Amino acid sequence: MARKQSRGRPEDMFSAQGERAIEREAPLAARMRPRSFEEFVGQAHLVGEGRVLRRVIDADQLPSIILWGPPGSGKTTLARIVAAQTKAHFAPVSAVTAGVADLRRIVDEARERRALHSQRTILFIDEIHRFNKAQQDVILPYVEEGVVTLIGATTENPSFEVIGPLLSRCRVYTLNQLTPEQVETIVRSALADKERGLGDRGLTVEEDVAPGLASASGGDARVALNALELAAAAAEAQGDRRVTLALVEEALQHRTYLYDRAGDAHYDTISAFIKSLRGSDPDAALYWLARMIEAGEDPLFIVRRMVILAAEDVGLADPQALVVATACQQAVHFVGMPEGFLPMAECALYLATAPKSNSALAAYEKARADAQKTRNDPVPLHLRNPVTGLMRDQGYGKGYKYAHGYDEHYVEQQFLPDRLAGRRYYQPGDLGWEKRIKEWLERLRKGKAERGPEGNET
User: Fold this and answer.
1) Angle between helices 320-335 and 341-353 (to 10 degrees)
2) For the chain, is the Cβ count within 10 Å smaller at the N or the C terminus?
3) pLDDT tens sequence across 140-171
């Protein structure tokens, strides 16, 4: 009879040693990943004491959820804490590498696990927005039936990136970007931790390193820890083991911009820029403009939006705004980048400080609504051009009053279809040039009954 092993199989020991070696050699950001809610920094609105999500995780009653937040905000970490806290089997996949076959295998195993052991399965899909519609359709029935509990993590707006039927079966929880103070807490924890961090490396760290990293990392804890680890390695290589802000800045190379020209940051930032222009805040407008330019946004995309704003939000309060915006487009197209930021900045400042009016937009919307209702109404006869004798005989042009033949080149007459006669769409504002327009129109309309004899008709 073979003698029983008392200390476990050799292959198990080798496997455990290998896993420990991998953990030791993992990047600092991976080693410092929080293992419990007590170590987790940020997102107190979701997982703070007494919060609903925290309670259902602690009670192992988690429903299917989508975690939506910027990079480095803790989505994957939160999912791993769920894995540690829950009695369910945890099956993580990445949408970048996983396919339909992987999902079907996990579902088959989940069915078997529930049948044999009455154990639930949590399917964690990192970057779920990278799954196409067909891949998301595969998951849907199993989430609906409860075969798996889904945790999806995404940096993109789930409303656009997750199919409606799947989204309707999940609760969406929004994670906030980490504040500089929270990132600094994470950095200081990594510097002090002797087991998983850099606390046993004998480093001398200048006081401005942690706040400097926190400020430059764009709220991404992973970026901060990776830069810290690289700066620490450089300090050890040069022999003095002194981590300075200069080393950290060199490790970062440049500040991290949370910006994706096809994602939410693209639309959120341009929205902030336009609203700053509309709100007459030149400083905020310049800031958001700089954010977009430095992140590599297409300059002509920005300029196109300024041209639209010049007509929509400045309008006739300052008609020169549209001229400035179109000139900016020409200048940027001609000069290119990086010097193109100069006409863009000038244009943004002009638009932000110009008086505002949306009267052109409001007037057009009213006119469009009437045009859609009366699109088949005939043009009044006196406005039609009598090109031929037959047309004259039928009354084309009869009664038309030639404006230049009257005082101030104006005469009252009907220009709208009969059903819309007397309708007013344009209501001039009281700011800038439009105030003059308003006074002029009021003068013309008030004096219409006081005019002299009619001039020439043509």
Assistant:
1) 170
2) N
3) 999 988 899 999 999 888 888 889 899 998 99
